Fold this sequence. Notes:
Blueprint: E1 2-8, H1 24-27, H2 31-36, E2 41-45, H3 56-63, H4 68-71, H5 76-82, E3 92-101, E4 112-114, H6 122-136, E5 141-147, E6 150-155, H7 185-199, H8 203-210, E7 218-226, H9 233-237, E8 241-244, H10 248-256, E9 260-261, H11 275-287, E10 292-297, H12 299-305, H13 309-333, E11 338-343, E12 360-366, H14 380-386, E13 389-390, H15 396-401
Parallel strand pairs: 1-10, 1-11, 2-13, 8-9, 8-10
Antiparallel strand pairs: 2-12, 3-4, 3-6, 3-7, 5-6, 11-12
Helix pairs in contact: 5-10, 11-13, 12-13
Amino acid sequence: MKYVVVLGDGMADWKIDALGGKTCLEAAKTHNLDKLAPVSEIGLCKTVPDGLKPGSDVANMSVLGFNPLKYYTGRSPLEAVAMGITLNDTDLTLRCNLVTLSEGGAYDEKIMEDYSAGDISTEEANELIKYLKSHLDSDKFKLYAGISYRHCLVEANGENVCEFTPPHDISDKPVTGHLPKGGHAAGYLAMMKKSYDLLKEHPVNLKRKAEGKKPANSIWLWGAGTKPTLAEFESERKLKGGIISAVDLVRGIGMLADMKIIEVDGATGDYNTDFEGKAKAAVRELLNGLDFVYIHMEAPDECGHHADFKHKVYSIEQIDTKVIKTLVDGLTAANEEFAVLVCPDHPTPCAIKTHTSDPVPYLLYTSNKKLGNGATRYTEDEAAKTGEYVADGYKLIEKLLNI
């Protein structure tokens, strides 16, 4: 038996007036999922435990079968691992976004105009981070360049005692009240303010503004954490597993679990990603020795953060036609028995542009028996109607692997 998780990050949503009162899942044309739904188990799952924030770190850890209450130490160290950063036990890591803040006025009164600096290119971002490193790096702090707007700051002998706000939680809102608090927060804030002074007139940003693009005019620190450990996936599950993702966070979880990181050309972490390439890579790896593949697609989440419901619907339709169909057709043609779990990690409602802890809909399909429980489509409402509910998200994988 081969096992696949198709993870549409942030795919679940609330009803949207512009979609005729439907969610993005309801509005999307999902012919392939519609075929699977009547013979699949469909229900709801709580992926974010009480007491933890609804981040993709916590939620993806849950769906992969790791109890966040046991293993979670923060978001940024997971990304640091994927970036190849060697961490000491006493290091504190922080996620460092390049963001767009409003111009003029005091720093603490600015507006968070874009948490991703207009999805800045990796090439432009690396140039900015290199420039910032020459001014901000010290024996205490080191900046590391990542992908697009996602970067990392490592603090030697740091203490995780401050409160930070994810920038995507305050899109289009004043940063007042959301700046670092507690402990030695003043040092972090001073670094953020200095970055604004350094970046506002940088040639990269002047060029972006001239082209009508948003400038990456500040860093934003958040997601602090310490060096994590995870159980090895193969030791725990007796299955050889792999991860497909363009996002360092998910790749980091896979690396810590000693899973194979499967590279796919054209994987971007946005709605222009190579959806079909990811599915083909999964089929190839499953037919060449792997037992389990986790296909993570960031696109719906990014669209939710931008309130871009049109491209969120598009992303769901691409997952349906390019991922679900490719997987089912490919494994069926190879005469493999297989099981597929489809779910988001958390909702990212377009109405609020950030994550919620609401239970997510899941679909569980297997090629060797019918599992239908009354649902006719894979949607939030249909999942709720079945009454099937998984209260501990990290146990959802048990349904897949014990099918």
